[in-house]
């Protein structure tokens, strides 16, 4: 049984996109980046994934430099390679090129001792979709509040 420990979530992705499917990918990191991730110093907010030459990369993910890393620290915004099966990458490449899909990192977590990224195959939301989601969330919150007050 594997243990999952979530490190970071991309909440903006759930607000801006419809997530059709999600995939798990490994990520290629150096030692000081892993130590910084263990301290929770990572941000997925404006990150996205791209596919080049049959490889998938994560862009815009910020991993703060490790305090005790000195010369071993890397650029916090560098492009990092994701590790997925070639068949999955080719499938995603076809979907992204044909239709209006994007690859967005949804969350970063530890699975046992390895850092994994959950990548979502996403379709962008329009402004009216975002408003409808906010209205539905607000209505659900009001209903739950009313039910809670009636229980007493």
Radius of gyration (CA) equals: 18 Å
Biggest sheet overview: 7 strands, antiparallel
Share in β-strands: 35-45%
Structural class determined from secondary elements: alpha+beta
List keywords for this structure.
152 residues; alpha+beta; two-stranded antiparallel sheet; 9 strands; 34% helix; globular
Describe the structure.
- The protein has 152 residues and is α+β, with helices and mostly antiparallel strands.
- Helices cover 34% and strands 38% of the residues.
- It has 4 helices and 9 strands.
- It has helices at residues 11-16, 31-38, 86-98, 127-150, and strands at residues 4-9, 17-27, 42-43, 48-52, 55-59, 62-63, 80-83, 101-111, 114-124.
- The strands form 2 sheets. The chain has a 7-stranded antiparallel sheet with strand order 1-8-9-2-7-5-4. Strands 3-6 form a two-stranded antiparallel sheet.
- A hairpin with a 2-residue loop joins strand 4 (48-52) and strand 5 (55-59).
Compact description:
The protein is of the alpha+beta class and 152 residues long.
Itemize the secondary structure elements and their pairings.
Elements: E1 4-9, H1 11-16, E2 17-27, H2 31-38, E3 42-43, E4 48-52, E5 55-59, E6 62-63, E7 80-83, H3 86-98, E8 101-111, E9 114-124, H4 127-150
Antiparallel strand pairs: 1-8, 2-7, 2-9, 3-6, 4-5, 5-7, 8-9
């Amino acid at each position: 049984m594997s243990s999952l420990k979530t490190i970071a979530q991309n909440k903006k992705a759930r607000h801006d996109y419809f997530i059709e499917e999600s995939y798990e990918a490994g990520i290629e990191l150096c030692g000081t980046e892993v130590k910084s991730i263990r301290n929770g110093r990572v941000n997925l907010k404006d990150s996205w994934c791209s596919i080049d030459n049959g490889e998938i990369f994560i862009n815009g993910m910020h991993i703060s430099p490790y305090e005790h890393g000195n010369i071993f620290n890397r650029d916090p915004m560098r492009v990092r390679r994701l590790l997925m099966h070639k068949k999955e990458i080719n499938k995603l490449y076809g979907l992204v090129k044909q239709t209006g899909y994007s690859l967005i990192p949804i969350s970063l977590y530890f699975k046992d001792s390895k850092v994994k990224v959950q990548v979502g195959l996403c379709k962008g939301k329009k402004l009216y979709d975002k408003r409808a989601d906010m209205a539905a969330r607000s209505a659900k919150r009001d209903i739950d509040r009313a039910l809670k007050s009636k229980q007493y």
